Amino acid sequence: MLLGGRLLTGLACGVASLVAPVYISEIAYPAIRGLLGSCVQLMVVTGILLAYVAGWVLEWRWLAVLGCVPPTLMLLLMCCMPETPRFLLTQHQHQEAMAALRFLWGSEEGWEEPPIGVEHQGFQLAMLRRPGVYKPLIIGISLMAFQQLSGVNAIMFYAETIFEEAKFKDSSLASVTVGIIQVLFTAVAALIMDRAGRRLLLTLSGVVMVFSMSAFGTYFKLTQSGPNNSSHVGLLVPISAEPVDVHVGLAWLAVGSMCLFIAGFAVGWGPIPWLLMSEIFPLHVKGVATGVCVLTNWFMAFLVTKEFSSIMEILGPYGAFWLTAAFCILSVLFTLTFVPETKGRTLEQITAHFEGL
């Protein structure tokens, strides 16, 4: 029964992670689309933080019951929400689309009606030859891959152990501390998203992650007493003959690097790939294209989580984290070279950009 529950929960989370960003991008006014789109990630990290806190006082059975409350509220409240105007137009329901637009925006001012000549045909493989399809698809897949290759799951996995090495009295505070940092900086990103722009925040986020991952790798390098220990899997156990105080001080380097990484990730590479995924695809391929991007994200998360320990055995802990720093450098270069700025643009203008119009 537990496995069945986990399976159904995973299925529901997968659907929500695909549909929620797309729905928000299609109903949001262009000037606040970044704010609303970033709220998806903000609500995710807020939910994680609340789960950490609730886990202190509730046993797992009651925690599972508490987890039923948000989806129940979502189910009830979504019954009051209309379909997106763009979807209704593809179904040739113009009056219903305008009614939904007035419900969502209050008026039709600023609305740019999308062309609907080919939307009803659905996705076809021949469409991949069009720059308006293959360019955003490559960008979307790459953003999702770089998000996971940044090493965020590895950092989260070792968070509590890092705090233990820094001699925190209650190492379980590590999860709450990490959660608070995520929520605060994701909220900051949401508030400035439509002013700073996606490219700037992605670049800044990537640079911060490069420095923090490099420092994290340096911590592991300094705690290794010799080459024979480079593949030691007990990562954070002091293994050299240096005084314990030295290791505590170095552990604070790891704590600082971890907190800096989480803050940098939350400002850019946490929310923005999901936001851009919902913005860059033309309407007639959005379902398939966003599905491919979400699949890429979850597959890369599984792959990195599963193989990271093997990479550490091969490269050593410091080599593994320096490798993630290299991926962060590539993510910055990719952003500066290929990712367009979408702030303030309508979805139709973004599609026209990729078509070269």
Keywords:
357 residues; mainly alpha; 15 helices
Give an account of the 3D structure.
This protein has 357 residues and is mainly α. The protein has 15 helices and no strands. The chain is globular. About 5% of the residues have low confidence. Keywords: Cell membrane, Glycoprotein, Membrane, Sugar transport, Transmembrane, Transmembrane helix, Transport. Belongs to the major facilitator superfamily. Sugar transporter (TC 2.A.1.1) family. Glucose transporter subfamily. InterPro entries: MFS_dom (IPR020846), MFS_sugar_transport-like (IPR005828), MFS_trans_sf (IPR036259), MFS_Trehalose_Transporter (IPR050549), Sugar/inositol_transpt (IPR003663), Sugar_transporter_CS (IPR005829).
Please specify the SSE layout and strand pairing.
Elements: H1 2-27, H2 33-57, H3 60-66, H4 69-78, H5 85-90, H6 94-105, H7 131-149, H8 152-157, H9 159-165, H10 173-196, H11 198-222, H12 244-267, H13 272-279, H14 286-338, H15 347-355
Helix pairs in contact: 1-2, 1-13, 1-14, 2-10, 2-13, 7-13, 7-14, 7-15, 9-10, 9-12, 10-11, 10-12, 11-12, 11-14
In short:
The protein is mainly alpha-helical and about 350 residues long. The chain has helices at about 1-25, 35-55, 60-65, 70-80, 85-90, 95-105, 130-150, 150-155, 160-165, 175-195, 200-220, 245-265, 270-280, 285-340, 345-355.
Mean pLDDT: 83
- Whole-angstrom Rg: 22 Å
Total helical elements: 15
* Helical percentage: over 70%
- Helix/strand structural class: mainly alpha
Q: How would a crystallographer describe the biggest sheet?
A: none
Give, in order, the helices and strands.
Answer: HHHHHHHHHHHHHHH
| End-to-end gap | 54 Å
Q: Stretches where pLDDT falls below 50 for ≥5 residues?
A: 226-244
The portion of residues forming beta strands comes to under 5%
Tally of strands: 0
Shape: globular
Main location: membrane
Transmembrane segments: 6-24, 31-54, 60-81, 137-159, 171-193, 200-220, 250-269, 281-300, 320-339
GO molecular function: dehydroascorbic acid transmembrane transporter activity
Catalytic activity: D-glucose(out) = D-glucose(in); alpha,alpha-trehalose(in) = alpha,alpha-trehalose(out); D-fructose(out) = D-fructose(in); L-dehydroascorbate(out) = L-dehydroascorbate(in)
